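Appendix B. One record, verbatim.
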Amino acid sequence: MANKAEYTIEVPEDRFEVLNYIKEAQKPLKIMIIGGIDSGKTTLATFLANELLNLGVKVAIVDSDVGQKSILPPATISLGIPETNFSNLYEIKAYKSYFVGSTTPMQFFGEMIVGTKLMCDYAKGEADVIIVDTTGLISNSGEDLKRMKIEIIKPDIIIALQKKNELTRILNPYEDKIKIFYLKVYEGIKSFSREERKDIRAEKWREYFKDSKTYNINFNDVAISGTKVFQGEKISEDEKRLLESVFKWRVLYGSKCEGRYVIVKRDLANTSRHVDKNILYYLDPDRFNNLIVGFIDREGFCRGFGILKEIDFENETLEVITPLNEYDVKNIIKEVRFGRVKVNEHGEELGLLDRELI
């Protein structure tokens, strides 16, 4: 399994200085590692965790890098609690996960912040040191996300990996509140192209879904979230017939919430339509095909992923493939939450939807 970082003791001396500080500091501790893309955050997290384990320290790792996930499943924020040494984070099984549903956090700040906070809170009773590995977004809205995470998590230590002074503007407000280590990015760190990152994700998707089965889940057996389609109440037969007559559609499903209609339809005629989408939003059913969905338990944690193959609106069922077993699907899962990544069972990413498109 391809992964970006492996455990090594061939690290710059300043990393050992940080380790020595952590060893002497009062526990429990929360440590946040921030830095740009390919700055060595996961390598550092791997090194620190292994060295602390060697000292008998209980360690938890919060993997919040949804774009280059190490602790699977992908597109989640995951908590790992290693008990023995490991070569890379991929070897660690997710203890708990929170569903984000995207490989980019830009439209999912709420999920990124809530998920990271929940994982840190859950780890409090399980570990002496919590290490938070973050995304490589440090500019524009990524800068805002880092500030929000710092303010909600309140780390005891921040380790900033920077090439020059690119993190100073983010961390300046916290200089007198939090112990901050500014470390230089290791010159030998490997950079990954966009295509290489995509290939790494594809291998992880493929590995995750390799033993999947097909299930049909009834609309009424679970809560369905992450989409506007199932919000509010279902439209009446009279409303359905009116919409079909006016717009030359076959309406497969429709709902209304606070004066706004959301319609899943198929066109029966090629005609131009001028519609205020603040009142009537419509989409084709194919938009949902191959969409990642999260299976959520009663505590709000993600128990696993599925690929949505089709929505049968007539029989009101979701056809999904997932490696989860039948008992979990039928008894443990209380919610199916729609994500925005499209993936096939071979691991190929087919696209990333804008949040507002479904």
